[in-house]
Amino acid sequence: MNIFQRNLEILRQHDPALAAKIAETSGGVLRIQSAKSGVPTAMHKNRDIHSAYDPLREAERWADHQIGNCQSGETLIVLGLGLFYHVEALLAKLPQDSIIIVVVPNLSELVDGLAVRSLDGWGERVCWVWGQPESLASQVARQAKRIRLLTYEPALMIHQAEYETFRSRLRDQLAKGVSGRLHIMVVGPIYGGSLPIAGYMVRALEALGHRVSWVDHSLHAPGFQNLNAIQDSRLRMTVQQRFSDTLGVITLAHVAEDPPDLVLAMSQAPLSMAVLEQMRRKKVITAMWFVENFRHLTYWQQMIEGYDFWFVMQQASCMEAFKNAGASHVSYLPLAADPTLHQPITLTCDDQLELGADVSFLGAGYRNRREILPVLLGKEWTFKLWGNEWDRAGALALVLQRNGARIDTQTSVKIFNATSVNVNLHSYTGSGFDPDGDGVNPRTFELASCGAFQVIDHRSLLPEIFDDSMMAVVRNPDELLPVVRTYLHEPELRKIMAEKSRQRVVHSHTYVHRMQTMLSTMGLACPDRIGAILQGDRQAEALLTRSQDCPELQTLLKTFPKTDRVELVDLANAIRQKNPETKLRREELLILMMDEYRQETRDFI
Protein backbone atom coordinates (compact mmCIF):
# COMPACT_ATOMS: atom_id res chain seq x y z
CA MET A 1 0.00 0.00 0.00
CA ASN A 2 1.56 3.31 -1.10
CA ILE A 3 1.30 6.67 0.71
CA PHE A 4 -1.73 7.81 -1.26
CA GLN A 5 -3.69 4.60 -0.58
CA ARG A 6 -2.81 4.69 3.12
CA ASN A 7 -3.96 8.33 3.30
CA LEU A 8 -7.25 7.36 1.64
CA GLU A 9 -7.82 4.75 4.35
CA ILE A 10 -7.26 7.38 7.05
CA LEU A 11 -9.70 9.73 5.34
CA ARG A 12 -12.34 7.00 4.93
CA GLN A 13 -12.44 6.50 8.69
CA HIS A 14 -13.30 10.16 9.34
CA ASP A 15 -14.78 11.55 6.12
CA PRO A 16 -15.97 8.81 3.70
CA ALA A 17 -17.48 11.35 1.31
CA LEU A 18 -14.17 13.21 0.96
CA ALA A 19 -12.24 9.94 0.50
CA ALA A 20 -14.62 8.84 -2.27
CA LYS A 21 -14.24 12.19 -4.03
CA ILE A 22 -10.45 12.13 -3.70
CA ALA A 23 -10.35 8.62 -5.21
CA GLU A 24 -11.89 9.92 -8.45
CA THR A 25 -9.94 13.19 -8.63
CA SER A 26 -6.64 13.70 -10.43
CA GLY A 27 -3.87 16.02 -9.25
CA GLY A 28 -1.56 18.24 -11.24
CA VAL A 29 -1.85 21.60 -9.48
CA LEU A 30 1.53 21.32 -7.75
CA ARG A 31 4.89 20.38 -9.21
CA ILE A 32 6.57 18.04 -6.70
CA GLN A 33 10.35 17.91 -6.30
CA SER A 34 12.91 17.16 -3.61
CA ALA A 35 14.14 19.81 -1.20
CA LYS A 36 17.83 20.01 -0.27
CA SER A 37 16.95 18.27 3.00
CA GLY A 38 15.58 15.29 1.04
CA VAL A 39 11.85 15.69 1.78
CA PRO A 40 9.28 16.58 -0.90
CA THR A 41 8.60 20.24 -1.65
CA ALA A 42 6.31 21.87 -4.18
CA MET A 43 6.10 24.66 -6.74
CA HIS A 44 3.21 26.29 -8.58
CA LYS A 45 3.87 28.22 -11.79
CA ASN A 46 7.59 28.51 -10.95
CA ARG A 47 6.82 29.79 -7.48
CA ASP A 48 7.93 27.97 -4.32
CA ILE A 49 5.07 26.83 -2.07
CA HIS A 50 7.47 25.49 0.57
CA SER A 51 11.16 26.00 1.22
CA ALA A 52 13.44 24.52 -1.44
CA TYR A 53 15.95 23.79 1.36
CA ASP A 54 14.11 22.63 4.48
CA PRO A 55 10.26 22.69 4.43
CA LEU A 56 10.10 21.15 7.92
CA ARG A 57 12.10 23.94 9.53
CA GLU A 58 10.13 26.56 7.63
CA ALA A 59 6.85 25.01 8.87
CA GLU A 60 8.17 24.98 12.44
CA ARG A 61 8.86 28.72 12.29
CA TRP A 62 5.41 29.41 10.82
CA ALA A 63 3.74 27.37 13.58
CA ASP A 64 5.76 29.13 16.33
CA HIS A 65 4.58 32.49 15.00
CA GLN A 66 0.92 31.43 14.82
CA ILE A 67 0.72 29.68 18.17
CA GLY A 68 1.65 32.88 20.00
CA ASN A 69 -1.65 34.47 19.00
CA CYS A 70 -3.94 31.48 19.56
CA GLN A 71 -6.20 31.36 22.61
CA SER A 72 -7.85 28.48 24.45
CA GLY A 73 -11.31 27.64 23.16
CA GLU A 74 -10.73 28.91 19.62
CA THR A 75 -11.32 26.96 16.43
CA LEU A 76 -8.32 27.33 14.14
CA ILE A 77 -9.09 27.64 10.43
CA VAL A 78 -6.09 27.23 8.11
CA LEU A 79 -6.17 28.88 4.68
CA GLY A 80 -3.47 27.64 2.33
CA LEU A 81 -2.92 23.95 1.63
CA GLY A 82 0.26 22.99 -0.25
CA LEU A 83 1.87 19.87 1.20
CA PHE A 84 0.49 20.71 4.69
CA TYR A 85 3.84 20.77 6.48
CA HIS A 86 2.57 23.86 8.34
CA VAL A 87 -0.61 22.07 9.43
CA GLU A 88 1.32 19.15 10.91
CA ALA A 89 3.77 21.51 12.66
CA LEU A 90 0.92 23.49 14.20
CA LEU A 91 -0.86 20.36 15.47
CA ALA A 92 2.35 19.24 17.16
CA LYS A 93 2.24 22.37 19.31
CA LEU A 94 -1.44 22.09 20.27
CA PRO A 95 -3.10 19.90 22.92
CA GLN A 96 -4.12 16.44 21.70
CA ASP A 97 -7.81 17.28 21.78
CA SER A 98 -7.34 20.27 19.47
CA ILE A 99 -8.84 20.09 16.00
CA ILE A 100 -7.81 22.22 13.06
CA ILE A 101 -10.15 22.92 10.16
CA VAL A 102 -8.31 23.12 6.84
CA VAL A 103 -10.15 24.79 3.96
CA VAL A 104 -9.72 22.96 0.64
CA PRO A 105 -10.90 25.09 -2.30
CA ASN A 106 -9.49 22.68 -4.90
CA LEU A 107 -9.38 18.89 -4.41
CA SER A 108 -6.68 18.44 -7.05
CA GLU A 109 -4.21 20.30 -4.84
CA LEU A 110 -5.13 18.01 -1.92
CA VAL A 111 -4.56 14.97 -4.17
CA ASP A 112 -1.04 16.23 -4.94
CA GLY A 113 -0.25 16.51 -1.25
CA LEU A 114 -1.74 13.14 -0.32
CA ALA A 115 0.43 11.45 -2.96
CA VAL A 116 3.70 12.44 -1.24
CA ARG A 117 2.92 13.30 2.41
CA SER A 118 1.66 10.82 5.00
CA LEU A 119 -1.22 11.70 7.34
CA ASP A 120 -0.18 9.01 9.84
CA GLY A 121 -0.16 10.24 13.43
CA TRP A 122 -1.66 13.68 12.79
CA GLY A 123 -4.11 13.63 9.88
CA GLU A 124 -6.79 12.11 12.10
CA ARG A 125 -6.99 15.41 13.99
CA VAL A 126 -7.67 17.48 10.87
CA CYS A 127 -11.15 18.39 9.70
CA TRP A 128 -10.99 19.00 5.95
CA VAL A 129 -13.78 21.16 4.53
CA TRP A 130 -14.18 21.22 0.77
CA GLY A 131 -16.52 22.47 -1.91
CA GLN A 132 -17.54 25.88 -3.27
CA PRO A 133 -16.61 28.96 -1.18
CA GLU A 134 -20.22 29.59 -0.14
CA SER A 135 -20.59 25.98 1.02
CA LEU A 136 -17.24 26.11 2.80
CA ALA A 137 -18.28 29.20 4.73
CA SER A 138 -21.54 27.56 5.81
CA GLN A 139 -19.72 24.42 6.96
CA VAL A 140 -17.23 26.38 9.05
CA ALA A 141 -19.88 28.69 10.54
CA ARG A 142 -21.94 25.65 11.61
CA GLN A 143 -19.01 23.80 13.17
CA ALA A 144 -17.22 26.61 14.94
CA LYS A 145 -17.94 29.54 17.23
CA ARG A 146 -14.80 31.46 18.16
CA ILE A 147 -12.82 31.35 14.94
CA ARG A 148 -9.22 32.33 14.30
CA LEU A 149 -8.11 32.38 10.67
CA LEU A 150 -4.50 31.34 10.06
CA THR A 151 -3.04 31.93 6.61
CA TYR A 152 -0.14 30.19 4.94
CA GLU A 153 0.46 32.81 2.26
CA PRO A 154 2.60 30.89 -0.28
CA ALA A 155 -0.13 28.25 -0.75
CA LEU A 156 -3.01 30.70 -0.30
CA MET A 157 -1.90 32.58 -3.42
CA ILE A 158 -2.73 29.55 -5.62
CA HIS A 159 -6.47 29.96 -5.06
CA GLN A 160 -6.55 33.53 -3.76
CA ALA A 161 -9.90 34.45 -5.35
CA GLU A 162 -11.62 31.42 -3.81
CA TYR A 163 -10.16 32.13 -0.38
CA GLU A 164 -11.24 35.79 -0.56
CA THR A 165 -14.77 34.71 -1.44
CA PHE A 166 -14.69 32.25 1.47
CA ARG A 167 -13.59 34.99 3.89
CA SER A 168 -16.35 37.27 2.67
CA ARG A 169 -19.07 34.61 2.95
CA LEU A 170 -17.82 33.47 6.37
CA ARG A 171 -17.83 37.05 7.61
CA ASP A 172 -21.43 37.46 6.42
CA GLN A 173 -22.47 34.14 7.98
CA LEU A 174 -20.98 35.06 11.35
CA ALA A 175 -22.56 38.52 11.24
CA LYS A 176 -26.01 36.90 11.15
CA GLY A 177 -25.34 35.01 14.38
CA VAL A 178 -23.98 37.95 16.38
CA SER A 179 -25.60 38.31 19.80
CA GLY A 180 -23.00 40.14 21.89
CA ARG A 181 -23.05 43.85 22.61
CA LEU A 182 -19.95 45.99 22.08
CA HIS A 183 -19.16 49.39 23.52
CA ILE A 184 -18.02 51.41 20.50
CA MET A 185 -16.69 54.94 20.64
CA VAL A 186 -17.23 56.80 17.34
CA VAL A 187 -14.93 59.78 16.75
CA GLY A 188 -16.07 62.16 14.06
CA PRO A 189 -14.34 65.04 12.24
CA ILE A 190 -14.71 68.71 13.09
CA TYR A 191 -16.56 69.34 9.82
CA GLY A 192 -16.70 68.06 6.24
CA GLY A 193 -18.36 65.40 4.11
CA SER A 194 -17.54 62.54 6.47
CA LEU A 195 -19.34 64.22 9.39
CA PRO A 196 -22.89 63.14 8.41
CA ILE A 197 -21.56 59.65 7.64
CA ALA A 198 -20.32 59.41 11.24
CA GLY A 199 -23.86 60.17 12.36
CA TYR A 200 -25.29 57.46 10.11
CA MET A 201 -22.79 55.00 11.61
CA VAL A 202 -23.87 55.87 15.14
CA ARG A 203 -27.52 55.25 14.22
CA ALA A 204 -26.68 51.94 12.54
CA LEU A 205 -24.58 50.66 15.44
CA GLU A 206 -27.31 51.55 17.91
CA ALA A 207 -29.86 49.80 15.68
CA LEU A 208 -27.68 46.68 15.91
CA GLY A 209 -27.90 46.83 19.70
CA HIS A 210 -24.41 48.10 20.52
CA ARG A 211 -23.66 50.77 23.09
CA VAL A 212 -22.27 53.79 21.27
CA SER A 213 -20.37 56.76 22.69
CA TRP A 214 -20.41 59.55 20.11
CA VAL A 215 -17.47 61.98 20.41
CA ASP A 216 -18.92 64.81 18.33
CA HIS A 217 -16.12 67.24 17.50
CA SER A 218 -18.39 69.27 15.21
CA LEU A 219 -19.35 71.14 18.39
CA HIS A 220 -15.93 72.79 18.13
CA ALA A 221 -16.26 73.72 14.43
CA PRO A 222 -17.08 77.42 15.01
CA GLY A 223 -13.95 77.89 17.14
CA PHE A 224 -11.78 76.04 14.65
CA GLN A 225 -13.13 78.04 11.70
CA ASN A 226 -12.57 81.31 13.56
CA LEU A 227 -8.86 80.55 13.34
CA ASN A 228 -9.07 81.32 9.62
CA ALA A 229 -8.96 84.98 10.67
CA ILE A 230 -5.21 84.52 11.35
CA GLN A 231 -3.64 85.92 8.18
CA ASP A 232 -0.15 84.45 8.51
CA SER A 233 -0.58 80.98 6.91
CA ARG A 234 2.24 79.32 8.86
CA LEU A 235 0.97 80.66 12.16
CA ARG A 236 -2.62 79.74 11.26
CA MET A 237 -1.64 76.14 10.42
CA THR A 238 0.34 75.85 13.67
CA VAL A 239 -2.57 77.08 15.78
CA GLN A 240 -5.05 74.85 13.92
CA GLN A 241 -2.80 71.86 14.57
CA ARG A 242 -2.64 72.71 18.29
CA PHE A 243 -6.44 73.01 18.31
CA SER A 244 -6.75 69.61 16.64
CA ASP A 245 -4.25 68.08 19.09
CA THR A 246 -6.36 69.37 21.98
CA LEU A 247 -9.43 67.64 20.55
CA GLY A 248 -7.39 64.44 20.40
CA VAL A 249 -6.62 64.77 24.12
CA ILE A 250 -10.32 65.36 24.77
CA THR A 251 -11.00 62.07 22.96
CA LEU A 252 -8.45 60.34 25.23
CA ALA A 253 -10.29 61.71 28.24
CA HIS A 254 -13.53 60.15 26.98
CA VAL A 255 -11.72 56.83 26.47
CA ALA A 256 -10.28 56.98 30.00
CA GLU A 257 -13.66 57.83 31.58
CA ASP A 258 -15.55 55.02 29.87
CA PRO A 259 -13.14 52.60 28.14
CA PRO A 260 -14.64 51.19 24.92
CA ASP A 261 -14.01 47.87 23.21
CA LEU A 262 -13.34 49.73 19.99
CA VAL A 263 -12.58 53.30 18.89
CA LEU A 264 -13.97 53.85 15.40
CA ALA A 265 -12.78 57.02 13.66
CA MET A 266 -14.06 58.66 10.51
CA SER A 267 -11.89 60.39 7.91
CA GLN A 268 -10.43 63.67 9.21
CA ALA A 269 -11.06 62.73 12.86
CA PRO A 270 -8.64 64.82 15.00
CA LEU A 271 -6.59 61.90 16.30
CA SER A 272 -2.83 62.35 16.09
CA MET A 273 -0.27 59.56 16.06
CA ALA A 274 0.61 60.39 19.67
CA VAL A 275 -3.02 59.90 20.71
CA LEU A 276 -3.32 56.65 18.74
CA GLU A 277 -0.06 55.32 20.20
CA GLN A 278 -1.38 56.03 23.70
CA MET A 279 -4.54 54.07 22.90
CA ARG A 280 -2.44 51.19 21.61
CA ARG A 281 -0.36 51.13 24.79
CA LYS A 282 -3.62 50.78 26.72
CA LYS A 283 -4.74 47.91 24.44
CA VAL A 284 -7.61 49.88 22.88
CA ILE A 285 -8.52 48.55 19.42
CA THR A 286 -8.77 51.33 16.81
CA ALA A 287 -10.26 51.43 13.32
CA MET A 288 -10.52 54.09 10.63
CA TRP A 289 -13.12 54.21 7.86
CA PHE A 290 -11.28 56.22 5.20
CA VAL A 291 -14.06 57.52 2.94
CA GLU A 292 -11.75 59.66 0.79
CA ASN A 293 -9.95 59.20 -2.52
CA PHE A 294 -6.58 57.90 -1.36
CA ARG A 295 -4.84 59.49 -4.37
CA HIS A 296 -6.09 63.01 -3.60
CA LEU A 297 -5.93 63.08 0.21
CA THR A 298 -2.71 61.40 1.30
CA TYR A 299 -2.58 62.14 5.04
CA TRP A 300 -3.26 58.42 5.58
CA GLN A 301 0.41 57.80 4.79
CA GLN A 302 1.46 59.50 8.04
CA MET A 303 -1.29 57.74 10.04
CA ILE A 304 -1.08 54.25 8.56
CA GLU A 305 0.50 52.50 11.55
CA GLY A 306 -1.69 54.30 14.07
CA TYR A 307 -4.83 52.25 13.43
CA ASP A 308 -5.27 48.52 13.94
CA PHE A 309 -7.84 48.37 11.12
CA TRP A 310 -8.36 50.43 7.97
CA PHE A 311 -11.55 50.28 5.92
CA VAL A 312 -11.43 51.95 2.50
CA MET A 313 -13.98 52.75 -0.23
CA GLN A 314 -11.59 51.78 -3.05
CA GLN A 315 -10.07 48.44 -4.03
CA ALA A 316 -7.01 47.09 -5.89
CA SER A 317 -4.39 49.87 -6.00
CA CYS A 318 -5.77 51.51 -2.84
CA MET A 319 -5.59 48.37 -0.72
CA GLU A 320 -2.17 47.52 -2.14
CA ALA A 321 -0.89 51.02 -1.31
CA PHE A 322 -2.16 50.78 2.28
CA LYS A 323 -0.62 47.33 2.77
CA ASN A 324 2.70 48.44 1.30
CA ALA A 325 2.69 51.46 3.63
CA GLY A 326 2.34 49.18 6.64
CA ALA A 327 -1.38 48.72 7.36
CA SER A 328 -1.90 45.61 9.50
CA HIS A 329 -5.48 45.06 8.30
CA VAL A 330 -7.08 46.83 5.34
CA SER A 331 -10.52 45.93 3.94
CA TYR A 332 -12.80 47.23 1.22
CA LEU A 333 -15.97 48.80 2.62
CA PRO A 334 -18.06 50.87 0.21
CA LEU A 335 -20.34 53.65 1.35
CA ALA A 336 -24.08 53.26 1.89
CA ALA A 337 -27.35 55.03 2.74
CA ASP A 338 -29.62 55.33 5.75
CA PRO A 339 -33.14 54.46 4.51
CA THR A 340 -34.68 55.91 7.67
CA LEU A 341 -33.44 59.31 6.42
CA HIS A 342 -32.84 58.80 2.70
CA GLN A 343 -36.32 57.76 1.58
CA PRO A 344 -39.12 58.67 -0.84
CA ILE A 345 -41.17 61.57 0.53
CA THR A 346 -44.12 63.72 -0.50
CA LEU A 347 -43.18 67.39 -0.75
CA THR A 348 -45.29 70.39 0.13
CA CYS A 349 -46.22 72.78 -2.67
CA ASP A 350 -43.73 75.34 -1.32
CA ASP A 351 -40.91 72.79 -1.21
CA GLN A 352 -41.70 71.59 -4.72
CA LEU A 353 -41.70 75.17 -6.00
CA GLU A 354 -38.32 76.00 -4.46
CA LEU A 355 -36.52 72.68 -4.75
CA GLY A 356 -38.13 71.02 -7.77
CA ALA A 357 -36.48 70.89 -11.21
CA ASP A 358 -36.34 68.77 -14.32
CA VAL A 359 -32.59 68.39 -13.85
CA SER A 360 -30.42 69.19 -10.85
CA PHE A 361 -26.95 68.66 -9.46
CA LEU A 362 -25.98 68.76 -5.78
CA GLY A 363 -22.33 68.89 -4.76
CA ALA A 364 -19.20 71.00 -4.37
CA GLY A 365 -17.69 72.97 -7.23
CA TYR A 366 -14.79 70.79 -8.34
CA ARG A 367 -13.04 71.66 -11.60
CA ASN A 368 -14.53 68.82 -13.65
CA ARG A 369 -18.04 69.78 -12.61
CA ARG A 370 -17.46 73.43 -13.51
CA GLU A 371 -16.36 72.38 -16.97
CA ILE A 372 -19.00 69.68 -17.67
CA LEU A 373 -22.24 70.99 -16.18
CA PRO A 374 -22.62 74.15 -18.34
CA VAL A 375 -23.72 71.87 -21.20
CA LEU A 376 -27.04 71.51 -19.35
CA LEU A 377 -27.74 75.27 -19.36
CA GLY A 378 -30.21 76.98 -21.69
CA LYS A 379 -32.02 73.83 -22.75
CA GLU A 380 -35.71 72.95 -22.82
CA TRP A 381 -35.66 71.92 -19.16
CA THR A 382 -35.21 73.64 -15.82
CA PHE A 383 -31.79 73.09 -14.26
CA LYS A 384 -30.82 73.89 -10.66
CA LEU A 385 -27.38 73.73 -9.06
CA TRP A 386 -27.02 73.13 -5.31
CA GLY A 387 -24.02 73.08 -2.99
CA ASN A 388 -21.04 75.12 -1.83
CA GLU A 389 -17.56 76.02 -3.11
CA TRP A 390 -18.94 77.51 -6.36
CA ASP A 391 -17.12 80.85 -5.99
CA ARG A 392 -15.97 80.74 -9.62
CA ALA A 393 -19.16 79.29 -11.05
CA GLY A 394 -19.11 81.33 -14.27
CA ALA A 395 -22.29 80.77 -16.29
CA LEU A 396 -23.45 78.27 -13.66
CA ALA A 397 -23.96 81.17 -11.23
CA LEU A 398 -27.30 81.80 -12.97
CA VAL A 399 -28.69 78.48 -11.68
CA LEU A 400 -26.83 78.28 -8.34
CA GLN A 401 -29.40 78.09 -5.54
CA ARG A 402 -29.31 79.66 -2.05
CA ASN A 403 -26.17 81.63 -2.93
CA GLY A 404 -24.05 78.49 -2.77
CA ALA A 405 -24.92 77.52 0.80
CA ARG A 406 -24.05 74.05 2.10
CA ILE A 407 -27.09 71.77 1.87
CA ASP A 408 -28.05 69.65 4.88
CA THR A 409 -29.27 66.05 4.73
CA GLN A 410 -32.97 66.85 5.12
CA THR A 411 -32.90 69.37 2.27
CA SER A 412 -30.84 67.02 0.11
CA VAL A 413 -33.51 64.34 0.44
CA LYS A 414 -36.15 66.85 -0.64
CA ILE A 415 -34.08 67.93 -3.67
CA PHE A 416 -33.54 64.31 -4.74
CA ASN A 417 -37.27 63.62 -4.52
CA ALA A 418 -38.24 66.87 -6.28
CA THR A 419 -35.97 66.32 -9.30
CA SER A 420 -36.83 64.31 -12.41
CA VAL A 421 -33.20 63.60 -13.42
CA ASN A 422 -30.52 63.91 -10.73
CA VAL A 423 -27.04 64.29 -12.21
CA ASN A 424 -24.34 62.61 -10.12
CA LEU A 425 -20.79 63.41 -11.26
CA HIS A 426 -17.96 62.23 -9.03
CA SER A 427 -15.50 64.93 -8.01
CA TYR A 428 -12.21 65.23 -9.89
CA THR A 429 -9.54 67.92 -9.77
CA GLY A 430 -8.75 67.44 -13.46
CA SER A 431 -10.85 67.76 -16.60
CA GLY A 432 -13.57 65.30 -17.59
CA PHE A 433 -14.14 62.07 -15.70
CA ASP A 434 -11.50 60.62 -13.41
CA PRO A 435 -9.65 57.98 -15.54
CA ASP A 436 -8.86 56.07 -12.34
CA GLY A 437 -12.38 56.45 -10.94
CA ASP A 438 -13.25 53.45 -8.80
CA GLY A 439 -14.88 54.23 -5.43
CA VAL A 440 -18.59 55.13 -5.46
CA ASN A 441 -19.62 58.32 -3.66
CA PRO A 442 -22.29 58.46 -0.91
CA ARG A 443 -24.67 60.44 -3.16
CA THR A 444 -25.09 57.37 -5.38
CA PHE A 445 -26.51 55.34 -2.50
CA GLU A 446 -28.53 58.23 -1.06
CA LEU A 447 -30.23 59.01 -4.39
CA ALA A 448 -31.04 55.35 -4.87
CA SER A 449 -32.39 55.01 -1.34
CA CYS A 450 -34.70 57.98 -1.99
CA GLY A 451 -36.11 56.21 -5.05
CA ALA A 452 -34.69 59.06 -7.16
CA PHE A 453 -33.52 58.57 -10.72
CA GLN A 454 -29.88 59.44 -11.44
CA VAL A 455 -27.44 59.81 -14.30
CA ILE A 456 -23.99 58.86 -13.03
CA ASP A 457 -20.47 58.80 -14.48
CA HIS A 458 -18.90 55.35 -14.81
CA ARG A 459 -16.89 53.97 -11.88
CA SER A 460 -15.06 50.66 -12.03
CA LEU A 461 -16.66 49.46 -8.76
CA LEU A 462 -20.19 50.55 -9.70
CA PRO A 463 -21.32 47.38 -11.56
CA GLU A 464 -20.89 45.15 -8.50
CA ILE A 465 -23.16 47.51 -6.53
CA PHE A 466 -25.74 48.74 -9.08
CA ASP A 467 -26.35 47.54 -12.64
CA ASP A 468 -27.46 49.44 -15.74
CA SER A 469 -31.12 48.61 -15.09
CA MET A 470 -31.01 50.81 -11.97
CA MET A 471 -29.43 54.05 -13.18
CA ALA A 472 -28.14 55.65 -16.38
CA VAL A 473 -24.35 55.40 -16.65
CA VAL A 474 -22.32 57.73 -18.89
CA ARG A 475 -18.73 56.89 -19.77
CA ASN A 476 -17.56 60.28 -21.05
CA PRO A 477 -18.78 63.89 -20.69
CA ASP A 478 -20.11 64.00 -24.28
CA GLU A 479 -22.76 61.43 -23.36
CA LEU A 480 -24.25 63.50 -20.54
CA LEU A 481 -26.47 65.83 -22.61
CA PRO A 482 -28.10 63.19 -24.86
CA VAL A 483 -28.62 60.77 -21.95
CA VAL A 484 -30.32 63.45 -19.83
CA ARG A 485 -32.52 64.42 -22.77
CA THR A 486 -33.46 60.77 -23.45
CA TYR A 487 -34.51 59.98 -19.89
CA LEU A 488 -36.42 63.22 -19.38
CA HIS A 489 -38.85 61.87 -21.98
CA GLU A 490 -39.11 58.43 -20.28
CA PRO A 491 -40.87 59.03 -16.93
CA GLU A 492 -42.12 55.45 -16.56
CA LEU A 493 -38.70 53.98 -17.28
CA ARG A 494 -37.14 56.38 -14.78
CA LYS A 495 -39.62 55.25 -12.14
CA ILE A 496 -38.89 51.55 -12.74
CA MET A 497 -35.11 52.04 -12.65
CA ALA A 498 -35.22 54.21 -9.54
CA GLU A 499 -37.34 51.68 -7.68
CA LYS A 500 -34.90 48.89 -8.58
CA SER A 501 -32.01 50.94 -7.22
CA ARG A 502 -33.97 51.67 -4.03
CA GLN A 503 -34.67 47.97 -3.47
CA ARG A 504 -30.99 47.17 -3.98
CA VAL A 505 -29.96 49.67 -1.31
CA VAL A 506 -32.53 48.48 1.22
CA HIS A 507 -31.52 44.87 0.66
CA SER A 508 -27.72 45.22 0.60
CA HIS A 509 -26.31 48.73 1.00
CA THR A 510 -27.43 50.37 4.23
CA TYR A 511 -25.16 51.56 7.02
CA VAL A 512 -26.48 48.70 9.12
CA HIS A 513 -25.10 46.31 6.48
CA ARG A 514 -21.78 48.15 6.51
CA MET A 515 -21.44 48.09 10.29
CA GLN A 516 -22.24 44.36 10.35
CA THR A 517 -19.49 43.79 7.79
CA MET A 518 -17.02 46.00 9.61
CA LEU A 519 -17.55 44.40 13.02
CA SER A 520 -17.54 40.82 11.74
CA THR A 521 -14.29 41.57 9.85
CA MET A 522 -12.68 42.74 13.08
CA GLY A 523 -14.26 39.86 14.97
CA LEU A 524 -12.54 37.36 12.66
CA ALA A 525 -9.21 39.14 13.09
CA CYS A 526 -9.58 39.47 16.90
CA PRO A 527 -11.50 36.35 17.96
CA ASP A 528 -10.31 36.61 21.55
CA ARG A 529 -11.56 40.20 21.93
CA ILE A 530 -14.05 41.69 19.44
CA GLY A 531 -15.02 38.24 18.16
CA ALA A 532 -15.60 36.79 21.62
CA ILE A 533 -17.84 39.69 22.65
CA LEU A 534 -19.83 39.54 19.41
CA GLN A 535 -20.34 35.81 19.90
CA GLY A 536 -21.83 36.43 23.37
CA ASP A 537 -18.91 35.14 25.47
CA ARG A 538 -19.30 38.07 27.88
CA GLN A 539 -23.03 37.54 28.44
CA ALA A 540 -24.17 36.38 31.88
CA GLU A 541 -25.42 33.03 30.56
CA ALA A 542 -22.08 32.20 28.92
CA LEU A 543 -20.14 33.29 32.01
CA LEU A 544 -22.33 31.10 34.21
CA THR A 545 -21.47 28.09 32.07
CA ARG A 546 -17.75 28.83 32.26
CA SER A 547 -17.71 29.46 36.03
CA GLN A 548 -19.29 26.22 37.25
CA ASP A 549 -16.30 25.49 39.48
CA CYS A 550 -16.73 28.82 41.27
CA PRO A 551 -20.14 28.87 43.01
CA GLU A 552 -19.40 32.21 44.71
CA LEU A 553 -19.06 33.90 41.31
CA GLN A 554 -22.17 32.13 40.02
CA THR A 555 -24.23 33.64 42.82
CA LEU A 556 -23.27 37.10 41.62
CA LEU A 557 -23.78 36.29 37.92
CA LYS A 558 -27.29 34.97 38.52
CA THR A 559 -28.38 38.46 39.55
CA PHE A 560 -27.94 39.63 35.93
CA PRO A 561 -30.35 38.88 33.03
CA LYS A 562 -28.93 36.01 30.96
CA THR A 563 -28.41 38.07 27.81
CA ASP A 564 -26.78 41.04 29.60
CA ARG A 565 -23.11 41.64 29.05
CA VAL A 566 -21.25 41.45 32.36
CA GLU A 567 -17.82 42.97 32.98
CA LEU A 568 -15.64 43.35 36.07
CA VAL A 569 -17.04 46.82 36.73
CA ASP A 570 -20.59 45.43 36.67
CA LEU A 571 -19.75 42.79 39.26
CA ALA A 572 -18.01 45.39 41.40
CA ASN A 573 -20.97 47.77 41.21
CA ALA A 574 -23.36 44.97 42.16
CA ILE A 575 -21.24 44.24 45.25
CA ARG A 576 -21.09 47.94 46.21
CA GLN A 577 -24.90 48.11 46.15
CA LYS A 578 -25.15 45.58 48.98
CA ASN A 579 -26.12 46.66 52.45
CA PRO A 580 -23.09 48.30 54.16
CA GLU A 581 -23.55 45.90 57.07
CA THR A 582 -23.18 42.85 54.81
CA LYS A 583 -20.04 40.84 55.36
CA LEU A 584 -18.34 40.34 51.99
CA ARG A 585 -16.86 37.04 50.94
CA ARG A 586 -13.23 36.70 49.91
CA GLU A 587 -14.13 36.47 46.22
CA GLU A 588 -16.19 39.67 46.44
CA LEU A 589 -13.33 41.51 48.10
CA LEU A 590 -10.99 40.35 45.35
CA ILE A 591 -13.38 41.66 42.68
CA LEU A 592 -13.53 45.05 44.40
CA MET A 593 -9.75 45.14 44.66
CA MET A 594 -9.31 44.34 40.96
CA ASP A 595 -11.82 47.03 40.01
CA GLU A 596 -10.02 49.60 42.14
CA TYR A 597 -6.77 48.66 40.42
CA ARG A 598 -8.47 48.99 37.02
CA GLN A 599 -9.61 52.51 37.84
CA GLU A 600 -6.18 53.55 39.09
CA THR A 601 -4.49 52.43 35.85
CA ARG A 602 -6.66 54.46 33.47
CA ASP A 603 -3.87 57.01 32.98
CA PHE A 604 -4.48 57.71 29.30
CA ILE A 605 -3.55 61.36 29.68
Summarize the structure.
With about 600 residues, this protein is an alpha/beta fold.
Description:
By secondary structure, the chain is an alpha/beta fold. The chain folds into four domains: 174 residues, Protein-Tyrosine Phosphatase, Chain A (Alpha-Beta Complex), CATH 3.90.190; 154 residues, Rossmann fold (3-Layer(aba) Sandwich), CATH 3.40.50; 161 residues, Glycogen Phosphorylase B (Rossmann fold), CATH 3.40.50.2000; 61 residues, no CATH class. Helices cover 44% and strands 14% of the residues. It has 26 helices and 18 strands. The strands form four sheets. It has a six-stranded parallel beta sheet with strand order 9-8-10-11-12-13, with helices on both faces. A five-stranded parallel beta sheet has the order 15-14-16-17-18, with helices on both faces. A four-stranded parallel beta sheet has the order 6-5-4-7. β4, α4 and β5 form a beta-alpha-beta unit. α8 crosses α21. The model has no long low-confidence stretch (mean pLDDT 91).
Break the fold down into its secondary structure elements and pairings.
Blueprint: H1 3-14, H2 16-23, E1 31-34, E2 40-44, E3 47-48, H3 55-67, E4 75-79, H4 85-92, E5 100-104, H5 107-114, E6 126-130, H6 133-143, E7 147-151, H7 153-156, H8 160-176, E8 183-187, H9 194-207, E9 211-215, H10 221-226, H11 233-257, E10 262-266, H12 273-281, E11 285-290, H13 300-303, E12 309-312, H14 317-325, E13 330-332, H15 349-355, E14 357-362, H16 367-372, E15 383-386, H17 409-418, E16 419-424, H18 442-449, E17 454-457, E18 472-474, H19 480-488, H20 491-508, H21 511-525, H22 530-534, H23 540-546, H24 551-557, H25 568-576, H26 586-600
Parallel strand pairs: 4-5, 4-7, 5-6, 8-9, 8-10, 10-11, 11-12, 12-13, 14-15, 14-16, 16-17, 17-18
Antiparallel strand pairs: 1-2, 2-3
